[in-house]
Design goal:
By secondary structure, the protein is mostly helical. Helix content is about 60%, strand content about 5%. The longest helix has about 40 residues, at about 55-95. It is rod-shaped, with a radius of gyration of 37 Å.
């Protein structure tokens, strides 16, 4: 990355082991030492400000699994509540007499097979 006029120069002291790790990382990423240090400082600042939390792969997979399960449970709960409302509505309609039903028919007393009227 080319140096800009707004860039500031700093001096840092690293022990030999840390310097070797930094050089290996820069070589592996095919970047300059300055770019790798810039990324490291940015990551440290984000982590310190609680904008970044490094999740292990297994933790990220578990979080994704739990999000999927919560979405599934929400869908199932919606279906169950819909069926409950429909069931209670049907029961209320029957008890209120809104639904046609054989108990509402008035039979002729002399001829039980003959219906006098439907209400």
């Amino acid at each position: 990355m080319a140096r800009k006029e707004s860039d500031k120069r700093i001096t840092a002291t690293l022990d030999a082991d840390m310097y070797r790790k930094l050089c290996n990382l820069a070589e592996r990423k095919d970047e300059s030492l300055s770019d790798v240090l810039r990324e490291a400082v940015d990551l440290l600042i984000r982590y310190d400000n609680e904008d970044y939390y490094p999740l292990a792969r297994i933790e990220a997979a578990r979080v994704n699994q739990m999000v999927d399960l919560m979405a599934s449970m929400s869908s199932k709960l919606d279906n169950v509540s819909k069926y409950m409302v429909e069931g209670f509505t049907s029961i209320l309609n029957v008890t209120n007499g809104d639904a046609p039903n054989y108990l509402q028919r008035v039979m002729d007393e002399d001829d039980p097979d003959r219906i006098v009227r439907d209400e």
